[in-house]
């Protein structure tokens, strides 16, 4: 509309209605023509677009989808932990139904109703595990195209900020008291003391010990193959004494195992991985993670500090690795722990990383027992501490 025409109607151009001031009709016509041209080139019709918008994939309920995800994950402690939180979700709700607020409410209810133990930190771990469990579930849903990333409510959940760990190295006197308590009493002190020695010598995690198989032992070089977090593998030196103990306990106990048995003591199916385990109960059944809980509850009854501070197997890892780092340096401690070789500390670490012989030397110094790969047994643990 021209300025003259606007003045003729008694209004300035700025006072004209927006639909008269803007050439919307021309723009809309051009956009429509461009869209129709694109549709024609793609070989689709308007009806095709309408039907595609209407036909949405069926979004499963939590009750339908959780078993699918559970079976798709490797049989690890992480899967079992996540499952304990997935069972708190609404079985009849679709994955795309819950709002962020509803999920936050459910997480808070889980925090309030958690089982409180001595290592409890205000429900920090309950919230963290629940958020991680939800994110894992929705990642599968996104991959299966039931929802889009924009529709993922778990992406807007704020996990709690990590707190510094209370775990630390055990003093020599407390470590001795722990070993003494393990050897006295219980229904299987031989297995309990073997576990403590295995974790003290190797600083391995629970998963590494449970994953051991008979074929993971190399008695000639006194090495065991550890498979731990992230499916990482490493050969770890052990003393000949520990190697012999591991071999003997398996040879003696596997004779009592019934190959036709399909379930564990708790009634759960024996998986292929479990049937291959090196560590065994007296009846020949493969040892489970539950043994550690029983062990530390028993030790806590005899050693008050264990119960007071919530000491667990991972504290042995702290104990060993701190001693190795103090006496043999960071590179050897890093190799001893099986930590990944990252370049964050500079490219030089590629060339200065410790070898398995240096790990064997640290083990020999710590235990006072010669190792086939160590050039010098060095000082014993307590001699080096002086």
TrEMBL record:
- InterPro entries from the UniProt entry: DNA_brk_join_enz, Integrase-like_cat_sf, Integrase_catalytic, Tyrosine_recombinase_XerCD
Give residue ranges for domain Tyr recombinase. Answer: 165-364
Q: Which family does it belong to?
A: Belongs to the 'phage' integrase family.
The UniProt record lists the keyword DNA-binding:
yes
Can the keyword Oxidoreductase be found in this entry's annotation? no
Signal peptide limits: none
Ranges for the region named Disordered are 1-21
Q: Where is the composition biased (Basic residues)?
A: 1-11
UniProtKB keywords:
DNA recombination, DNA-binding
GO terms assigned for molecular function: DNA binding
The record's listing under CDD domains reads: DNA_BRE_C (cd00397)
Which organism is this entry from? Answer: Nocardia uniformis
Q: What is this protein called?
A: Tyrosine-type recombinase/integrase
PANTHER family, per this entry? INTEGRASE_RECOMBINASE PROTEIN MJ0367-RELATED (PTHR30349:SF41), PHAGE INTEGRASE-RELATED (PTHR30349)
One Pfam entry for this protein is: Phage_integrase
